[in-house]
Design brief:
- The chain contains 29 helices and five strands.
- The strands form two sheets. It has a three-stranded antiparallel beta sheet, with no helix packed on it. Strands 4-5 form a two-stranded antiparallel ribbon.
- Helix 1 packs antiparallel against helix 9 and helix 7 runs antiparallel to helix 22.
- The protein starts with 22 loop residues before the first strand and ends with a helix.
Length: 624
C-alpha cells in the first residue's frame, strides 16, 4: 500500500504526476483507519454530487414547465382571429370592439393582485387561480359567440378584463419561478421563457386546424381549456422545487451553456412554427405538424439531462475510477479537497444580496461626483436634460414614490408607451386591417407572422448577455436599436397597401415589440432596483392599457369616419370599411408617435450609459 502524501513536506521519494494517494488491488492489505475515512469522504462527495445534480435537474424541469406555461397562455395574440366574428355577433361598432380589446389589456393594471396573492397562497394555487380566470373569461365568451347564451356588452367587457388579468397572473408565476431557481442567470431565464409567449398564436392556429379548420370561434374554447391543461402538466415540477443551493462558478458557466443550447432549440422551434403554423392545413396534416410542435416543446427536457449526465460521468466515473491492470485507483485527495471547496464556498455572484452588491458599487459617491462633473460639461437644452438628476449607479432601490419622481422613469415609460405598446395595439387590429385591404383570408397568417417575429424579438433580447464579454453595450442602447423598426414599418404600411408591405411591416413590428417586452423586466431591475422590480414593473406596464385605449380609439375613429365617406360593405348588420384609407391616417399617426418613443429612448440611453459602463467595469473586476 502506498503511503499517503504529505502536502506540507516535499519528499524526494514523491511519485510522478500520475501518482495517486492509494490504490486497491486484489492483493492489498486491510485499510488503515485514515484510509477508511478517506474512502468515506469520497463516498460522501459522490453522494453530494448526485444530490446536487438531482436538485439541478429539477430546476431545469421547472424551466421547461415555465416554457409550456408561456407558450400556451399568450391567448391575447389570437384576438384578431375571431374579432370580426365577435363584432358581427354582438352587432357593435369598431369603437366598441376596440373597448373590448382594451379591456383585455386593462387586466395588466391589476397585475399587482397576483403579487398580493403570492403573499398568502402557494405558487401552484396562484397558477390555478389564473387558469380558472381564463377558463371562465374565455369560456363564457365562446358560449356568447356560439349564440348559446346572450350577455350584455358590459358583461362581455368584464369577461375580457378577467381573461386579460389571467395572462398577467400567469406571467407573474413564470417570473417568480425564473427568479427563484436561476438567481445567477435571471435575464437569460426570463428572456427564454417569455419568448415562448410569442409562439402561442402559431400553436393555437395548428390546434384549431387539427380540430376544425372551418371555425374561427374554436379559438375561444381553446383559450379557455388549453391553459388549464398546461397548468395541470406543470404542477408536478412546481411542487417539487429544489432547494436554493448556491452554484459554484463552474456551475454558473455550465448553466450558461445549457441556456445557449436551449436558445438554439428555441430558434428552431420558432422557424418550425413560422413555416407550418402560419398557413391553414387539412385536419390530418395539421395534427402531424401539431405533434411535431409539441415534441419540440418537450425536447428541452433532454438537454440539461445530457449535459449533467456527461458532467456526472466525467466527475464520478471517468476521473475518479480508472482501471489499472488488476486493481483501480480512487480520486486524488487534491481533487477531492477542490470539489469540497467548490461545494461549500459562499457564492460570489448568486442571490439577491450579491446581485445588489454587484449592481450597487461601493464607490457610488465617487461615481456620482464624476457623473455630475461630466454632465456639467454638457451645454444647451439637451445637455441639461441629459445631465439633470442622472443615475449614479445601477441597482439602487426605488420606492414607488421615488420612481414616479425620476426623469429616467418617464423617458423609459414614454419609450415603452410609444414603442412596444403601439405594436401590441397593431396586432389587436390586424383582423380589421387585413379585412379592409381585402385580405381576410390571410388574417391567421398575419397573426402568426406577428407572434412568430415577436418570439424571435424576445429571443434576441438575450443576445446582449451572451456577447457582453466581447462587446458590451448598455441595455438601454439595445432598447433604442429595438425601437428603430417600428417607425420604419408604419411608414412602409402607409406608403403601400400591397401584400408584401403588409407582411414586412407586420414582421418588423412584431420583432421590435417582442424585444421590448422581454428586455423590459431586466431594464426595470437594473435601473430601479432588483428587489423592487415586481412593483415597479407593474407600474411601468400601466402604459399598455392606456396605449390600447388611446391608440385603439384613434384607429377606430379613423376607421368609422371612412365608413361613412369611403367604400364600405354591410355584413351581418355590421358596416365594414374597405380600402387603403381605412387605416392610412392611423399608420401616419402611429409612425409619428413611434418616432417620439425612439427619441425618448435615445435620451434615456445618454442619461444611463455611464452607469452601465461603470457597472460592467466593476462586474468584470469582481468576476475575473
Amino acid at each position: 500500500m502506498r503511503p499517503r502524501r504529505d502536502h506540507s513536506v516535499s519528499s524526494s521519494t514523491s511519485s510522478s504526476s500520475s501518482y495517486k494517494p492509494f490504490s486497491i488491488s486484489r492483493d492489498t492489505k486491510p485499510l488503515s483507519s485514515s484510509q477508511q475515512k478517506a474512502l468515506q469522504r469520497v463516498s460522501y462527495y459522490k453522494l453530494a454530487v448526485l444530490v446536487f445534480m438531482a436538485g439541478q435537474s429539477r430546476k431545469w424541469m421547472i424551466l421547461v414547465a415555465t416554457i409550456w406555461i408561456q407558450a400556451f397562455t399568450g391567448t391575447n395574440f389570437d384576438f384578431s382571429s375571431y374579432s370580426s366574428v365577435l363584432k358581427s355577433v354582438l352587432g357593435i361598432s369598431q369603437v366598441q370592439l376596440n373597448y373590448l380589446a382594451t379591456a383585455s389589456d386593462l387586466g395588466k393594471v391589476f397585475g399587482w393582485s397576483s403579487g398580493l396573492a403570492l403573499m398568502y397562497f402557494p405558487l401552484w394555487v396562484v397558477l390555478f387561480i389564473a387558469a380558472f380566470m381564463g377558463f371562465i373569461g374565455y369560456g363564457l365568451q365562446w358560449l356568447v359567440i356560439r349564440q348559446i347564451i346572450v350577455l350584455p356588452y358590459f358583461v362581455m367587457f368584464l369577461l375580457c378584463l378577467l381573461a386579460g388579468c389571467s395572462i398577467c397572473w400567469f406571467n407573474t408565476v413564470c417570473f417568480v419561478l425564473c427568479i427563484r431557481n436561476f438567481p445567477a442567470n435571471q435575464p437569460l431565464a426570463i428572456s427564454l421563457t417569455v419568448s415562448f409567449n410569442g409562439v402561442s398564436a402559431a400553436l393555437y392556429n395548428l390546434a384549431a386546424d387539427a380540430i376544425d379548420s372551418s371555425s374561427t370561434t374554436i379559438y375561444l374554447i381553446l383559450n379557455a381549456v388549453i391553459p388549464l391543461i398546461t397548468s395541470v402538466a406543470a404542477l408536478i415540477p412546481i411542487l417539487r422545487q429544489p432547494s436554493l443551493d448556491p452554484l459554484p462558478p463552474d456551475g454558473v458557466r455550465r448553466d450558461s451553456v445549457i441556456f445557449l443550447f436551449l436558445n438554439i432549440l428555441a430558434v428552431l422551434t420558432g422557424i418550425y412554427l413560422l413555416l407550418f403554423g402560419s398557413s391553414s392545413f387539412k385536419t390530418a396534416t395539421a395534427r402531424v405538424f401539431l405533434a411535431g410542435a409539441i415534441f419540440l416543446l418537450i425536447f428541452p427536457l433532454c438537454i440539461p439531462g445530457i449535459v449533467y449526465a456527461r458532467d456526472w460521468f466525467r466527475r464520478a466515473v471517468h476521473s475518479n475510477i480508472r482501471i489499472e491492470g488488476s486493481g483501480f485507483i480512487l480520486v486524488d485527495v487534491d481533487d477531492l479537497e477542490l470539489h469540497k471547496e467548490l461545494l461549500t464556498r459562499e457564492p460570489s455572484i448568486n442571490g439577491n444580496e450579491s446581485l445588489s452588491h454587484l449592481l450597487v458599487y461601493n464607490g457610488a459617491s465617487a461615481q456620482s461626483l464624476s457623473f455630475r462633473n461630466k454632465s456639467m460639461e454638457c451645454t444647451g437644452c439637451c445637455g441639461t436634460i441629459v445631465g439633470k438628476d442622472q443615475l449614479a449607479m445601477l441597482g439602487e432601490e426605488h420606492s414607488a414614490r421615488l420612481l414616479v419622481r425620476r426623469l429616467d422613469f418617464w423617458l423609459y415609460y414614454i419609450a415603452y408607451f410609444c414603442g412596444g405598446t403601439i405594436g401590441l395595439v397593431y396586432s389587436n387590429n390586424l383582423g380589421q386591417i387585413a379585412q379592409s385591404l381585402g385580405q381576410s383570408s390571410n388574417t391567421t397568417a398575419l397573426v402568426t407572422l406577428y407572434s412568430s417575429f415577436s418570439f424571435f424579438g424576445r429571443l434576441l433580447s438575450a443576445v446582449p448577455d451572451y456577447i457582453r464579454a466581447k462587446f458590451y453595450f448598455a441595455r438601454t442602447g439595445w432598447l433604442t436599436i429595438a425601437l428603430l423598426p417600428t417607425p420604419v414599418a408604419f411608414i412602409l404600411l402607409a406608403a403601400s397597401s400591397g401584400t408584401m408591405a403588409l407582411h414586412a411591416g407586420t414582421a418588423l413590428i412584431g420583432l421590435s415589440s417582442g424585444f421590448i417586452f422581454a428586455a423590459a423586466v431586466s431594464i426595470t431591475s437594473e435601473l430601479f432596483g432588483p428587489n423592487s422590480v415586481g412593483v415597479n414593473h407593474n407600474i411601468l406596464i400601466t402604459n399598455i392599457p392606456l396605449g390600447s385605449l388611446v391608440y385603439g380609439f384613434l384607429a377606430a375613429i379613423v376607421y368609422d369616419a371612412n365608413v361613412s365617406t369611403g367604400l364600405s360593405i354591410l355584413t351581418s348588420d355590421t358596416i365594414v370599411c374597405m380600402g387603403r384609407n381605412c387605416y392610412f391616417l392611423t399608420f401616419v399617426w402611429w409612425a409619428c408617435i413611434s418616432v417620439l418613443g425612439l427619441a425618448s429612448s435615445v435620451l434615456l440611453f445618454f442619461r444611463t450609459r455611464h452607469a452601465y459602463d461603470h457597472f460592467e467595469h466593476n462586474r468584470s473586476t469582481q468576476l475575473y
